[in-house]
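Thread title: Can someone regenerate the structure for this chain?

I was given the following input by a collaborator and told the matching structure tokens would be attached. They weren't. Posting the sequence so someone can regenerate them.
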Amino acid sequence: MFRLAALGSIAAVALAACGPAQEIVETMPHQTYDAKAFFETTAVSMASPTPLAFSADGTNLLVATDKSGVFNAAALPVAGGEMKPLTTSATDATFAISYFPSDDRILVSADKGGNELSHIYVREADGTLKDLTPGDKHIAQFIGWAGDGKTFWITTNEREPQFMDVYAYSAADFSRKLVFENSGFFPSSISPDGKWLALDKQTTAADSDVYVADLSKPAKQTPVLVTPNDADIAYLSYEFTPDSKQLVYGTDEHGEFTQAWTHDLATGEKKELVKADWDVQYVTYSSSGRYRVSAINEDASTKLTILDQTAGKPLTLTGVPAGDIGQVRFNRDETKIAFTVASDTSPSDVFVADLATGAATRLTTNLNPAIDETMLVDGQVVRYKSFDGLDIPAILFMPKGASAENPVPAVIDVHGGPGGQSRKGYAAMYQHLVNHGYAVLRVNNRGSSGYGKTFFHMDDKKHGEVDLDDVVYGKKYLQTLDWVQDDKIAILGGSYGGYMVAAALAFRPEEFTAGIDIFGVTNWTRTLNEIPPWWGAQKDALYDEMGDPATDAERHQRISPLFHADKVTKPLLVIQGANDPRVLQVESDELVAAVKKNNVPVEYIIFPDEGHGFLRKENRITASNAYLTFLNQYLKGVTPPEGAYASPAAPAPAAPATPPAP
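Best answer:
Regenerated them for you:
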């Protein structure tokens, strides 16, 4: 929901596109690649936005990478060279959090098979992992480090499933102390001096507030409201300023879009900090406070500014390719920054730059070298009219070679959420489809974030109705393009987007040629009743948007595809993770069984080692191959190979760290 904006006087970091290569593309024959080639790109993300993303000696960056096929922590040399693995899980994704202040120990997080019950681990100097948050039924999240490096904070819901308490951990011996006993808030950040805790509290989908607690007081206390108001206004805390004197927060109080403001902790004075005609995504600082980083969600792209507050001007980076800059990390003496750059045709790559000159050096090239990037396609931001004349933003991918003389089949993609947003950037599954001759329209239907609060709330308690109409009108828009086959258009989506797929086939059965439902909701009453307890007050906000199953059961049944599956007449592919805690496997099981009764072609793939979203590279390849096979079968008439839709076998359990006692 929240996006960053820059002050009018601050120019965004400019990235120049490369022109001549585009001219060469037209003379080269088109090359197609299989799913494995697209997913052999390497995903890399950096550790938390603190100086502790850099090692104590400044020679390495802490990253998470799926180079092995499963996400693991690794050290990326700042001078260039191969990443060194720091964790080696073959089963569960492990994500990097931070280095320790004075040595090369690291903090990482991992869950089990995608069950979202993440724990925080320390990797000791000898490579062993120690679980700092042991237990079978709770979740743990890292908040941050104290400015002196002696303490870090973790939240867990081990005391009460619905409340995330805050614990202070000693960096020396990992002893811990409960510093805030929660009673319905979402801990967000802690000031560098360790005194102030920022807390968010959501009342409805449109109304949320920011509180602070004084951690020098007893753990059980009543936080102080810092955003008093009598209206439906959304507030969200970002982080504290480096001097611990102000809290930076986001608010849509002053217009359609979220602005960044500051709250003075001593006086209560509030001031505008960053604004634009788009949402402010985030504001963060270097440790000294000299540099302030802000980012704006400008029409599904990130526009980032690094402001040198001492010099009073933005930093200019050179040697950076076209794309969105993100994940800015400062080293400990603030002489260098690391950051990522991503585009539609290239996954995120890591760069480092000298802060004195702005000159950047590339550390990774994560696109599979077997793929010629000129064979890939940039998405174009478009808008089309919906049933009531509302402009609907979308991202359109036109395959190479498509023309009025050679029209191509198409796929409508619906994002998750319900309040998510389809954004620019590399996505292997979409490039795979486009590379094989499918137009893709990624719709940001009403209810999507990033286009103002009015647009965001237009689908409240109208899900599966007005937003579905927006998607149908996306199909009608595609049918106006002479390079699209107007009778060969499928629909695809994951999570809430998967629900929209099932809803489209059940409630608009003649609109789409086929549908691909990726862990989509089919029974809203059950899904809303099964929300994990740690969502706390966020659950109430979702009920405000979607309706409370205790009082809106009739409407939920009316918009739930499961109860209308007898109307589905078009082929359906369903993909599901067995460990999904958000959309339970039974949701997909029952839809598949119900649609099969119609003598409609239904294919079903279950990943036994995944949750809500697929983290293992081999599973993402299997799923992407299935999408293409299914579309080829029902939009192009290509007979699928034997076993094309087989579910993978469950992986063998990992060997224990130490032999069990006899």
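The CA atoms of residues 157 and 163 lie 5 Å apart.
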